[in-house]
Amino acid sequence: MNDHLYRPGVGIMLINHDGRIFVARRIDMPSEAWQMPQGGIDEGEDPATALFREMREEIGTDKAEVLAESDDWYRYDLPEGLRDRLWGGRYVGQRQKWYALRYLGSDADINIETEHPEFMDWKWAPSATVPSLIVPFKRALYQQVMDELLAKIPPSLRIAG
Asked: Motif (Nudix box) spans which residues (predicted)?
């Protein structure tokens, strides 16, 4: 199924001690574009290694432990206006392995002013509000990912709404 048209990547649903989910606002989008940390898998890298590397690169810390992994790879297509701008126009979207992680650090450990910053702001959001914060072309994927991963983690790690 045309996997070569989709950039392989990982997605990270990071959950804090209150059961809220980490979202960050993209620095390169003029609209309110929030997302969970995510990124590409380097050549020869496995998804589990990529997820901790991406955490360090995007939020400055990898103080977390894996709680759950998606059974399959999720895909999304980029809107026409973005396809030519991202990744040299090589891909039509991404296929991603998603992970739920328990955050073990403090808010002070999070630093989005990394070497190549991708975010201008971040916050912990209740799970029910996360899909509404996400750019429309990723919204359905985020809802599917959250439905799968939240069902796999202990209820004590989730908060209502």
From this structure: 39-60
